[in-house]
Design a protein that fits this description.
The protein is an alpha+beta fold. The protein has helices at residues 2-40, 124-154, 159-173, 177-198, 206-232, 235-243, 248-278, 290-301, 304-335; strands at 55-63, 68-76, 79-85, 90-96, 107-108, 113-122. A hairpin with a 2-residue loop joins strand 2 and strand 3 (79-85).
Length: 336
């Protein structure tokens, strides 16, 4: 009996090994096919230029804002203080000693370089990546809150709450996210900002209308996930809680929702991963998230292959990281 089990285990291990080899061979064929296609297109890869779109050393120039003569150049620590005297006006500039490009008595015109220094700055891709993280995180947070409230309203016995939730869900799920972003930015945003201007208040930046469209879009799907998770818990759980003296909100909070939460984590993760990818649509309203930043970088550098592949890899890292975090939460909830 034991010998038979060992033989079966060996056969299974051998079968697994064969299919793993098949997987890597297929992966190699795909990679080689891609490389062959790029060679046929006679494309010159320039991966060495990609890092500058994450972090780069910028040459910052200090330019004269008036026309006049350099009246004084005096040291102050590691810097030099340059005073330019114009007609009845003077300007003072602080320039690093190594970057000083003028001397006393020189004549400078508006826009001339007085000095320069180098500093590290974040590149387009890093800037876009951070903005994608920001809008996605805020969208997910408000999407959860909205979805939780709507999901509870969806199963409420109050007709106003139930019908309101159903109307919201069907309206949002029945129209493309791109259309909703345009409505939020060009219609709702314009109306609200005009009201604010009329009241003497500052306008709301366009990015917040983009975040609102993402949160409301995600909230509709989260609501259905929450509703399905709550209804998957057996009715006897609620009846048992009520028999112990709990009212409905307490039973929902202490008994039903914790059980439902374990079941809705996987579909919630899928929804949030989808939201991160959907944030790429915000570029249509001039929000420079990762996709728009990549498009700008590719247009200016003609490095379409390298930059779009890097963009895809960054999205993959974001979604894979979120997926791993949700799996960790699943394990924690199971252990508890």
């Amino acid at each position: 009996m034991a010998a038979g089990s060992t033989a079966l285990a060996r056969q299974e291990a051998k079968r697994q090994l064969i299919w793993k080899i098949v997987f890597f061979i297929a992966l190699f064929i795909v990679a080689w096919g891609f490389y062959y296609a790029t060679q046929r297109a006679e494309y010159i890869w320039r991966w060495n230029r990609v890092p500058q779109y994450f972090y780069y050393h910028d040459d910052v120039r200090i330019r004269a804002e008036i026309e006049g003569e350099v009246a004084a150049v005096t040291p102050r620590g590691r810097d030099m203080v340059v005073v330019v005297q114009g007609d009845n006006v003077s300007e003072q500039y602080i320039v690093p000693q190594k970057g000083l490009r003028v001397s006393r008595g020189d004549t400078v015109y508006m826009g001339d370089t007085i000095g320069s220094y180098r500093e590290w700055k974040i590149g387009l891709l890093t800037d876009g990546l951070l903005l994608t993280l920001e809008v996605s995180a805020v969208g997910i947070l408000f999407g959860i809150l909205l979805g939780l409230f709507t999901g509870l309203a969806r199963i409420s016995t109050n007709p106003a709450l139930r019908w309101g939730a159903m109307t919201y869900i069907e309206l949002i799920r029945g129209s493309p996210l791109l259309v909703q972003i345009m409505i939020w930015y060009f219609v709702v945003g314009t109306l609200i900002n005009r009201l604010l201007i009329g009241a003497g208040l500052p306008e709301i930046p366009g990015i917040w209308y983009g975040v609102a469209s993402l949160a409301i879009f995600a909230g509709a799907y989260v609501a259905e996930i929450v509703r399905a998770g709550i209804q998957s818990v057996h009715k006897g759980q609620m009846e048992a809680a009520r028999s112990l003296g709990m009212n409905t909100p307490t039973a929902m909070r202490r008994i039903i929702l914790p059980q439902a939460f374990r079941r809705i984590l996987p579909p919630l993760a899928g929804q949030f991963i989808s939201l991160i990818k959907d944030s790429s649509l915000l570029g249509i309203i001039a929000i420079r998230e990762l996709t728009k930043a990549t498009r700008e970088a590719a247009t200016g550098s003609l490095m379409a292959y390298e930059l779009w592949l890097t963009c895809g890899l960054l999205y993959l890292l974001l979604t894979f990281g979120l997926s791993m975090f949700v799996q960790y939460l699943e394990k924690r909830t199971v252990e508890q």
